[in-house]
Write a structure and sequence with these properties.
The structure is a homodimer of 337-residue chains. With 337 residues, chain A is an alpha+beta fold. Chain A is 60% helix and 8% strand. The first copy, chain A, starts with 27 loop residues before the first strand and ends with a helix. Chains A and B meet through α1, α2, α5, α6 and α7 of A and α1, α2, α5, α6 and α7 of B.
Chain lengths: 337, 337
């Protein structure tokens, strides 16, 4: 009689899947066993390893049901296991990504779950707490992944390894920054004439970047927790676009007032009213685009099969930098030059 | 005989503590019970609720030990529970923050944990998977918290509530952006003479911001997973400062080359060699400060009793904006004006 099913190698499954967390099931019994026989076997096995459930399989090792220690305690010694076992138990598949497994088990709270292949053959078990533990460690890598830190980097990663992990993304970020600089460069003549515009460039860029990162963070959380499902994406996109618009308008008023006082104080050649109107308009436009980008960047990464968090903040700020400074200097050039 | 201990109200404990996740323990027995008596009680209780362990308490409801269903199955019917119960079981305290509980349970993987007060009185039980489930949901809020999204905001939070949550932080971010703008404003005269400097402002700001966010993300992860312990903070600070220096130097070379070609192409009045040296130096200086800020911002927030993630990205980019653009324009002014 099998005590374990066919041997498996956890490392033959892709990273971040249930297969990687599998252990061998300890107590695997045929359904014709009596309670007394099962207790005898449990007695032997219990000296070797801890386990929570007994798994009932047929000759082909197809999972038929689950029996708890309490079942063994409370049923007649002569009863057959298949007479009272829990049939059609909830099972996981080894190829499930951790996120998917977390979503399926979050309302069950079993100490462990059987893992079966598509024919129902019992491959192993996974402890519930391991799913969520791995998941917590996994999710804690997200803020880093957004700015180009590898998921495996931790506080105690050696210096050279950290440098190797992070540096390529910083060079990539620099390339994207050159794009934003190129946009500013297009309007060098305008800045040359109205130098106060240069002072407000970091305000536009910083503000639209932060607005976009808010939308990005909520999108990523939705993807992580399984709340941002296909079909609900458009509705969420509309909400974030509207939020960008509303936040842009309200923040644009403050920023416009800032420009008004600064330009009045500096006695600029251009009317402070016009300058503050340009700040307001470009803030509304760029925050609207920030909201849209905050949703589209992770969804696009996901669509191309990438982790939706990877470098998402770098892609996002490229879009928000180009849009915000492009709008600002573009409107100024059209209006004033 | 008590089946449950003194009634408790989970909502009387602060949010994100173990107390909030407590349930009443089902099987609570005195130690003098025999296995046969305990099995009889388990038989009654099992019809009402699911439970994993029996808890053994004295007259004052102080937890004495834990008995598993397997223990009941495998011991003599006449044996007293206190003869074989597991003494001094691992317990949690209701006031433990979830992070602390996660750190203590991560290598245990028990289906549930008893929760006791400081006298050892059994207050309730907490399922292991609930700790990690809450933790996963909690950690998934971190990228949002960094840019001013409330921890409770999710994809389906209504529009007005999202606006109310996020908007105050955006106005706050604008105030900090004004500080950065003020620094640029100090050097308006320099920009007026050498307008190419304005083109490279977003490069310096974007690059040092992303470098700092990498350090910030790894710091926050260390705090979340309990790896960044007091005493190891200085060592980590030195590492991140050195990483900032190294990344700043390597990225500074690329950025300096970018400035060299741009200035040569634009035929600027100032030597392209000098301009690219200024880009290089300010990149090294500001990325060094980014690394330091990425560690100091969350540690400072924590020291003041705040969540180390809260608005951390906003504080960080204020520091990196001011430092990077201040260095860049400051060095240019000292060298060229």
């Amino acid at each position: 009689m099998n005590q374990t099913t066919a041997p498996f190698r956890a490392d033959s499954y892709p990273e971040h899947t249930i297969g990687r967390l599998m252990e061998n099931p300890v107590a695997v019994f045929p359904g014709h066993l009596s309670v007394a026989e099962a207790v005898e076997r449990v007695r032997e096995l219990a000296t070797k390893r801890l386990f929570t459930y007994c798994y009932i399989v047929d000759e082909a090792e197809i999972l038929q049901g689950v029996v708890t220690m309490r079942d063994l305690l409370l049923h007649d010694r002569e009863a057959r296991l298949d007479a009272f076992m829990l049939r059609n138990p909830f099972v996981l598949r080894p190829e499930y990504p951790l996120m998917e497994a977390m979503r399926q088990t979050v309302n069950r709270h079993y100490p462990s779950y059987p893992v079966c292949d598509d024919r129902g053959m019992l491959l192993g078990i996974v402890r519930g707490s391991r799913i969520f533990e791995e998941q917590a460690v996994e999710i804690s890598a997200q803020p880093g992944a957004m700015v180009g830190v590898e998921r495996e980097e931790r506080v105690n990663t050696p210096f050279l390894r950290s440098l190797k992990f992070r540096h390529p993304w910083l060079q990539f970020n620099l390339l994207t920054a050159f794009i934003a600089a190129g946009v500013v460069g297009l309007f060098e003549g305008t800045i040359d004439q109205i130098v106060v515009l240069a002072v407000f460039l970091p305000v536009l860029a910083g503000q639209s970047g932060n607005t976009g990162c808010q939308a990005l963070a909520v999108s990523l959380r939705g993807l992580t927790l399984g709340e941002l499902k296909p079909g609900r994406e458009n509705q969420f996109l509309v909400k974030e676009a509207a939020l960008g618009l509303a936040n842009g308008a309200l923040v644009g008023i403050t920023a416009g007032l800032g420009m008004f006082f600064y330009a009045t104080w500096q006695q600029t050649a251009v009317s402070p009213y016009v300058l503050s109107a340009i700040v307001f308009l470009s803030m509304v436009g760029s925050c609207f685009l920030s909201g849209v980008s905050g949703v589209m960047v992770p969804l696009t990464l996901k669509k191309f099969g990438a982790d939706p968090a990877t470098a998402s903040s770098i892609f996002l700020t490229t879009a928000t930098d180009v849009a915000s400074m492009g709008f600002f200097l573009g409107i100024a050039t059209l209006w004033l030059m």
